Structures are given as structure tokens and as C-alpha cells.
Amino acid sequence: MLDTKQFLSAIQQIAEEKGISKDKIVETIQLAIAAAYKKDYGEKGQIIRAKLDPETGDIGITQIKYVIEGADEEGYVTGPLPVRAEEEKDFFERRSRERDQRMDQEP
Asked: What is the number of other CB atoms lying within 10 angstroms of the CB of residue 38?
């Protein structure tokens, strides 16, 4: 089980050493948890989000689903859903690259 005091202390220490807000650190941890979950348990096209409560250490995993009006004759989803999944993927990849660049620039 997660030692909450130790976890909060580690987040605080990283924030102070790197000059990054605690919220950004928690957000990065949430993205990493969601990516790890999706890698091990997810399927292609799924949108997974993780929520971490830094006060309690509780972690929640959510799969985002969209209700659509219909599909084409062959049962394939048409419309904004596939585009939305690609946009989400691009967003997370861009955030990951930005984070890596910041980490490379820091002493």
C-alpha cells in the first residue's frame, strides 16, 4: 500500500528541487498511470484517464466512452469519435515530449 506521508513528501521535494508546481507533478503522475494501465490492460482506441488524490493516495482509472448516433452499414463508427481519439493521442504525445524536453534542460 502507498505510504501517503512519504508520497506527499516526495512530491514536495521534487517540486522544490525542480521548481515545478505540485499540481504539474501530480498531473504527470496521472498521465503515467493512465499510460501504464492502457499498455497493460487497454485496447487500441481506448481513452483512459487516471485520477490521483495526493492527500489520500487513492487512484482511480476511468475509460472515456462517447455515445454515438449510429454506425455505417458495416458497423464501423463514423463521425467525430475516431478523430477525437487521434486528437487525444496527439495531445498526450505532445505533453510527453514537452516534459522530456524540460527534464533534459534542467541541471
From this structure: 19
